[in-house]
Write a structure and sequence with these properties.
- By secondary structure, the protein is an alpha+beta fold.
- The protein has a single domain (3-168), classed as Pnp Oxidase, Chain A, CATH 2.30.110.10.
- It is 21% helix and 41% strand.
- It is built from 5 helices and 10 strands.
- It has helices at residues 12-19, 61-68, 83-89, 99-103, 142-148; strands at 3-5, 23-29, 32-38, 42-46, 49-57, 71-77, 107-108, 117-118, 122-134, 155-168.
- The strands form 2 sheets. Strands 1, 2, 3, 4, 5, 6, 9 and 10 form an 8-stranded antiparallel sheet that branches. Strands 7-8 form a two-stranded antiparallel ribbon.
- The longest helix has 8 residues, at 12-19.
Length: 169
């Protein structure tokens, strides 16, 4: 498998279209790694650089790892065959099982970060976190709060500078 470097913005439509169906947010720290399914995220341009922002709830195992190592990767399954893995990785905790083994996922070392990507997905971003903040109820729309945060399990938003973007060939 060879990787072809890309401009993330030129793949913006594919990134956002795939994200709405699910992508893999992968983290690693202290010899442990985890991946979770995400359906929300933002491709952007901040501080003169391309960025990607992910949201992780306070209760997630992924949050422990991402706080310990401020890097992440997002693997977008633009190829078929990942529906079951996305389902498992979005419903089970990495605290309780090795999601990679359970979902039959294979990793490849990141090129610019210490976090792997998921082989076969087709499109990958590697990011180094430069900003993070936890959402606050007093700064959030009340209707959306009632719909998405009734139990007050707020997201922490992590913005990462995109250090590598590539597609598998």
């Amino acid at each position: 498998m060879t990787m072809k470097k890309i401009n993330a913005f030129e793949q913006g439509e594919a990134i956002l279209k795939t994200l709405s169906k699910g992508a893999f947010l992968t983290t690693a720290a202290d010899g442990k790694q985890n991946t979770m399914t995400i359906g929300w995220g933002s491709l952007g341009f901040k501080w003169g650089q391309p960025t990607f922002t992910v949201m992780v709830r306070q209760s997630r195992y992924t949050k422990e790892l991402i706080d310990a190592n401020p890097e992440f990767t997002v693997s977008f399954p633009v190829k078929e065959g990942f529906a079951q893995a996305l389902g498992l990785c979005g419903s089970k905790s990495g605290r309780d099982l090795d999601k990679f083994a359970a979902a039959g996922l294979t990793t490849k070392a990141g090129e610019t970060v210490s976090v792997p990507v998921i082989k076969g997905c087709g499109l990958h971003l590697e990011c180094k976190i430069v900003e993070h903040y936890t959402m606050a109820e007093d700064k959030f729309d009340k209707e959306l709060c009632e719909k998405w945060y009734a139990n007050k399990d707020w997201h922490t938003c992590y913005t990462g500078i995109i250090t590598a973007a590539y597609v598998e060939e």
